[in-house]
Amino acid sequence: MKTLETFLSEQGYELLNIDYPSRKYDISELANIIRKEVISKTSDAGKVHFITHSMGGIILRYIQKYDPIPNLGRVVMLSPPNHGSEVVDKLGGLWLFECINGPAGKQLGTDENSLCQKLGKVDFELGVITGDRSINWINSLIIPGKDDGKVSIESAKVEGMDDFLIVHVSHPFIMKNKTVITECFHFLQNGAFNMSETDNL
Length: 201
Prior knowledge:
Blueprint: H1 2-10, H2 27-41, E1 48-53, H3 55-66, E2 72-78, H4 86-91, H5 95-105, H6 115-118, E3 126-131, H7 137-142, H8 153-156, E4 163-167, H9 178-190
Parallel strand pairs: 1-2, 2-3, 3-4
Helix pairs in contact: 2-3
């Protein structure tokens, strides 16, 4: 997220680029860790905006459902598995999968009892950007429809979002894409993306 951080700093934003032990804990514990850090470092902020990548969006949704950040501003989620990932359904039981993704990764399945499905509609200003290019053909064979190698376009959507954008980029590199970076900035400023979904197809 460093490229995005540098750009937004140049636009006058004060940044908190949070690193967290994503492979060590489940989502509830990660949410607790992140919320404490955010609250401790933004106590005098008027609004706290978020840009998340992948599971980070699910962690923020968990926080806002169970222990909301009171001064939450606008949010942009990059490639969030808002309805889970079929990759987790298929491979989540493997030892290697847990080594790579940790206990939180195993919670991101698509069945009706998965954590993603229980978080419900978002109630904050949200723009979602996701990709339609994959560099992981094995995962893409598992995922139905267009995807970014980890998350399908349809799974990235969530009820209550204000805007949605598809870019031709893969999951690991979406946060470095120039179009994505400028669209993140535009949403934080205006509550909507500058491009429409059809502009980029």
